[in-house]
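Section 3.1: Structural characterization of target chains.
Under the original work plan, the team committed to producing a structural model for every single-chain target entering the pipeline before any wet-lab resources were allocated. The record below documents one such target. The sequence was received from the expression subgroup and is listed exactly as submitted; it comprises 156 residues.
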Amino acid sequence: MWRRLAGLLLVFAAATAALWLLSARLSAGQARRPLRFPSDLEELRELAEALRDYERQHRGAALALFCAAYLYKQSFAIPGSSLLNVLAGALFGPWTGLVLCSALTSVGATFCYLLSGTFGKQFVVYYFSDKVALLQRKVLHHIISSVCRQEPFCHK
């Protein structure tokens, strides 16, 4: 069980390092403050202004950094993706931003599901076995009762 937790921490550390390397490459060409995730609209506005010029000159690198940052937030269930949605519209235009965010949300949610299934399931079952069993009973009861409502020959 602790190996799985260590594996998750290793994946998180590797993803953090990769994102930092991408952002360090972007920051190297600018004399501004280091890049970080925006936490309010003012920081979002400043980040959009800083990235707009870079995006015009290096569209591929800016796109790669945005995709990596978005997937990082989605994969590890870090709050704040809504501000990245607004940033995508500001940087890439509303329609490209919409398509990009929709695709990245789907891929990031899939990564989150795979990470939680691979690394978190045994941890949660071990420490919260009584709550998991209660939830499983409730789900099973709901499934059985919904099937019995649909089948006239089902006996309760």
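The chain has six helices and no strands.
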